[in-house]
Amino acid sequence: MIEENTVYQPIALTGRVLGALFYCEPDSPVCSDIVAQLSADSWVAQWPYGLEAQLMPIAELLAQGQPEETREEAWQRLFIGPYALPAPPWGSVYLDKESVLFGDSTIKLRDWMAQQQVEVSLAQQEPEDHFGLLLMMAAWLAEHQPTDLPALLAEHLLPWGYRYLALLQAEARHPFYQGLAELTTLTLTHWQHELQVTPVVVELYR
Q1: Which family does it belong to (predicted)?
Q2: 123 Cβ contact list (under 8 Å, min separation 6)
Q3: Which pLDDT belongs to residue 4?
């Protein structure tokens, strides 16, 4: 049990932190403290994954301002619109041939969630395969149903997650979200290694 805790507790912690940053506005009550902590490099010593040499360049990105665009404006552009999102955060955009929301892959995720009795409370009608929601779902599973976590990662998150993060890093045009994409890629790589997860190989359409 001690050994399991050393694996699952860091996943729960980092999944909650990163998931919130993808899902909520940076100045929201959920995220404002997290953003403030990541804007100082003291978090580097506490992050459970990666070497200092890998994390310090990410910390520098997260701490940088952007004179032309605030962090909140960047979040609006990257996650809300009104224009086409340069890196859409929903799995079905990458996994379904038509690149639609609420596609077949979303239905498969819903079926899997129902089988595992995983519930997500959403404030509005939206797809459950949002990248931030899936990170928070992974955190919940790590705490409550750890035996189900590898399947979530292998079948519903990792097959498209790395592609999404690469797009976000390339298209973010804001240092905070470039750093967030890098930190999340590094963290997911460690999750995958520690749980010995092999992602399902699928064709990506974005």
Answers
A1: Belongs to the TorD/DmsD family. DmsD subfamily.
A2: none
A3: 64
Q: Contact at 8 Å (CB) between 131 and 89?
A: yes
Residue labelled with tokens 């035996």 = 147
Q: What is the pLDDT of residues 94-111, one digit of tens each?
A: 999 999 999 999 999 999
Give the CA-trace dihedral at 53, 57, 59, 63, to 10 degrees. 160
Check residue 3 and give its pLDDT.
54
> Which token pair is 127?
């797809």
* HEC sequence for the chain: CHHHHHHHHHHHHHHHHHHHHHHCCCCCCCCHHHHHHHCCHHHHHCCCCCCHHHHHHHHHHHHCCCCCCCHHHHHHHHHHCCCCCCCCCEHHHHHCCCCCCCCHHHHHHHHHHHHHCCCCCCCCCCCCCEHHHHHHHHHHHHHHCHHHHHHHHHHHHHHHHHHHHHHHHHHCCCHHHHHHHHHHHHHHHHHHHHHCCCCCCCCCCC
| Residue in this structure with the two tokens 């992602």, named with its chain if needed | 199
Tokens of 81: 């619109």
> In the chain, which stretches have pLDDT less than 50?
1-2
Q: What is the pLDDT of residue 90?
A: 97
